[in-house]
Each structure stands twice: as structure tokens, then as C-alpha cells.
């Protein structure tokens, strides 16, 4: 399936983010094997399913055993709810102006909402009154992230307010870990301590808390003691574990393009803005019509490898020179048989010989750019069509 974007017909552009939903399904299943029976798995499909397509990712994860879907924006929650998927949905990030219009409908659809401040509680309560139903609320506790969430000293006051509000039903209490991708960092245990005492105080006010959850991918992989009632996995489900692991996970996105031209140049030929690279021998250069406007990070220039599929097979070729807005250059080597039109793999699984040459991974591109795989995946821009394999 190709999702067209306005103004440009994707049939006329070679760049594709090819999504393999079976990778998401199998990754989800593999993560599920780490969980005790009483622990549910929430597939985090915010940011358009980390760039993979929210509905595609959600359906694939449900097939792999996810029974929850998590998104930041209520608008995403609404789109999920309308798709009538077999999973409970949680949304956690909204502000008053847009929330006033969207939250009543979100609640009408049976979506759970997070509350991270007294003002958010008031908004949700009002929306629930309008929707004529009780809102299922997960109280977000700020245990050190310093973003969304009530502070531990506010717990009793929030608990009392929720208990006394006929439009509110406490469905859960949750927090988000700052440093779970570094298992040696004591910050995680400090957060857990704060979280546990906040949950005890909340339970004092409202009774037993149905769902406690705090584990992201890293904590799901490394801290079984933090699985509690629900884990919220994002990046690992898309095939990029944030910590070393034996759990078999494979990338679900492959970014591809096609060579626009191939030309032979002599030694000392400069390539790209700023001339950060010149050829060190006679060679053949391939022009690939994909650049930072498609989501490649310019900071990753001149560090990664692509794979070109030619008549003679798959060949690894370094990306050379600065990444431009719409194009990059790869060094095909002096004897390459590559021709304009040949397929190029920027990252992901080329789907050829498993022992054959591999393109850099999204993790490699991230490292080269000084960022994380999350940003590489979610940066693939709207002008790159998603194609579900
Ligand atoms: C609140 C929340 N929970 C869970 C996740 C999933 O994190 P990860 O992708 O590291 O598994 C995210 C993503 O950033 C998040 O914002």
C-alpha cells in the first residue's frame, strides 16, 4: 500500500520507506516472551508509529500480542479508536485549547487518558461530563523526568480530587524513566523508589491502583522487576533495542532509493558542498536522489554505507561528501557495473543474501549524526512514501 502525499505523486519519486509489519509482529512477540502472564504489553505507536505508519504498526503489534496502544496526542488516539482495533488505548499529551475540542470525543471512544497536573485533571473531568461518561485516568508521576506529571508531594491532593470526582475513574499510575538505557545508572532505582512511594500514597487515597506501569523498551529488556502490570515498548518493537540484548529483534523499516546517474571521475575530484571529500583514485560516483529533506541527517555526512543492487549483485558503497537537501553521492568504485535506475538501500534489510553486503543500519546513521535511532526513524519525512511489504 502506498500512501500518497499532496502535490507530488509518489509514483514519480523513487524514495520509499518499506515497512515490514511481520518484523513488528515478531519483535512484539519476542518482547512478550519476557513478560509474566499478568503483565500486558503496550505498543507505543506515537509519532506515526515511530515513522512506520501508526495503523500499520498498531495492527502488527496487536498480532504480536500487544493489548494496549500508546500515543502522545489525543488526535492519534482518536484515529486508532476509529480504526476499531482490538486494544485499549492510552493518550498522554494535550494542552487546554485543543483538548477542549478533542477530549470529549476521545473519552466517548473509550480511550484512557493520562493526567499530569491539576489543570489536566480539570480538563479531563469537564470533557468526561460533556461525554457523559467516566474518564479512565492514568495519573502521571514526575519522578525525575521533569516533563509531564505531578510531583510526589501532590499525590495525596490529586488522589483526593480524583476520588471525589464522579467523572473520574483511576485506571492507573505511571511514570517514565530517564536513564533505563544505561542499566548502571542509579537514576532508575531512585525513580522507582519515588514511584513506589507515590503509588502507596495514591492507593491510600483511592484504593488499589489497577495498573502500574513504568517500563520502556530498555527496562523491559533489562529489568523484569519493573514490568509490573504493563510495559510500554516502542523502539525495540521497531527492531532497534536501546540496550544490548539476546532477544531476536529485526528492523521493520528499509529506506530505499534509485540511482539517478552514474559517472566516472578522475582522482582528486571534489564532491559536494564544502568539498569535504575528494576522490583518491579514478572511480565511478553514483548520485542518489535522497537527502536531508527526506530525513537523512546532514551531520551523518561521509560516514555511512549504502548497498546498490546491480546486475552483478549487491555491492556496498560509501556515502561520500556532504549530504545535500535532495541528494547524496556514493562511491561505487572504479569497476562498478551500477547504472542509473539501480535500486539503492540507505538503511534496513536489502532482502537479498543474508550473508551479502549490508547497508548501514538506522543505528549506524544515528551514531554518525550524534543522535539516536528514534530520531533517524521518525525523521524520514512526509515526502518519502511508506510502502507496506
Ligand atoms: C511515555 C512513554 N512511554 C514509553 C515510550 C517508549 O519508549 P521506548 O521507545 O524507549 O521503548 C515512550 C517513548 O519515548 C514514551 O514517551
From TrEMBL:
Query: From which domain of life does this come?
Result: Bacteria
Q: Name one GO cellular component term.
A: cytosol
UniProt key word Isomerase: yes
Positions with a binding annotation for substrate: 147, 325
Q: Where is the active site?
A: 46 (proton acceptor), 273 (proton acceptor)
Q: Which residues carry this modification: N6-(pyridoxal phosphate)lysine?
A: 46
Q: Which GO terms are recorded in the biological process aspect for this UniProt protein?
A: D-alanine biosynthetic process; peptidoglycan biosynthetic process
Q: What does this protein do?
A: Catalyzes the interconversion of L-alanine and D-alanine. May also act on other amino acids.
Q: What is this protein called?
A: Alanine racemase
**In the UniProt record, what gene is named as encoding this protein?**
alr
Amino acid at each position: 500500500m502506498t500512501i500518497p502525499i499532496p502535490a507530488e505523486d509518489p509514483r514519480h519519486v523513487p524514495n520509499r520507506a518499506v515497512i515490514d509489519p511481520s518484523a513488528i509482529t515478531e519483535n512484539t512477540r519476542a518482547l512478550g516472551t519476557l513478560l509474566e502472564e499478568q503483565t500486558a504489553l503496550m505498543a507505543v505507536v506515537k509519532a506515526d508509529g515511530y515513522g512506520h505508519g501508526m495503523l500499520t504498526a498498531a495492527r502488527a503489534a496487536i498480532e504480536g500480542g500487544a493489548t494496549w496502544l500508546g500515543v502522545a496526542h489525543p488526535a492519534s488516539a482518536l484515529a486508532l479508536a476509529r480504526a476499531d482495533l482490538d486494544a485499549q488505548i492510552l493518550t498522554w499529551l494535550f494542552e487546554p485549547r485543543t483538548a477542549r475540542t478533542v477530549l470529549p470525543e476521545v473519552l466517548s471512544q473509550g480511550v484512557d487518558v493520562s493526567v499530569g497536573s491539576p489543570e489536566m485533571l480539570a480538563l479531563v473531568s469537564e470533557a468526561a461530563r460533556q461525554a457523559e461518561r467516566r474518564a479512565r485516568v492514568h495519573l502521571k508521576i514526575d519522578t525525575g523526568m521533569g516533563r509531564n506529571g505531578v510531583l510526589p508531594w501532590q499525590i495525596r491532593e490529586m488522589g483526593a480530587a480524583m476520588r471525589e470526582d464522579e467523572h473520574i475513574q483511576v485506571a492507573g499510575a505511571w511514570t517514565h524513566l530517564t536513564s533505563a538505557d544505561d542499566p548502571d545508572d542509579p537514576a532508575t532505582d531512585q525513580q522507582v523508589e519515588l514511584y513506589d512511594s507515590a503509588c502507596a500514597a495514591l492507593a491510600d487515597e483511592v484504593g488499589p491502583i489497577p495498573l502500574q506501569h513504568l517500563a520502556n523498551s530498555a527496562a523491559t529488556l533489562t529489568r523484569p522487576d519493573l514490568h509490573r502490570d504493563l510495559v510500554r515498548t516502542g523502539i525495540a518493537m521497531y527492531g532497534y533495542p536501546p540496550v544490548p540484548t539476546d532477544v531476536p529483534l529485526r528492523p521493520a523499516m528499509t529506506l530505499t532509493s534509485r540511482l539517478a546517474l552514474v559517472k566516472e571521475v578522475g582522482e582528486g575530484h571534489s564532491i559536494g558542498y564544502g568539498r569535504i571529500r575528494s576522490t583518491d583514485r579514478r572511480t565511478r560516483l553514483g548520485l542518489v536522489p535522497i537527502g536531508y529533506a527526506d530525513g537523512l541527517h546532514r551531520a551523518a555526512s561521509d560516514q555511512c554505507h549504502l548497498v546498490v543492487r546491480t546486475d552483478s549483485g549487491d555491492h556496498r558503497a560509501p556515502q561520500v561528501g556532504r549530504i545535500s537537501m535532495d541528494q547524496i553521492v556514493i562511491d561505487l568504485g572504479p569497476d562498478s557495473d551500477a547504472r542509473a535506475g539501480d535500486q539503492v538501500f540507505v538503511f534496513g534489510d536489502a532482502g537479498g543474501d543474508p550473508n551479502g553486503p549490508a547497508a548501514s543500519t538506522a543505528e549506524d546513521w544515528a551514531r554518525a549524526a550524534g543522535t539516536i535511532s528514534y530520531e533517524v526513524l521518525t525523521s524520514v519525512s512526509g515526502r518519502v512514501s511508506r510502502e507496506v511489504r
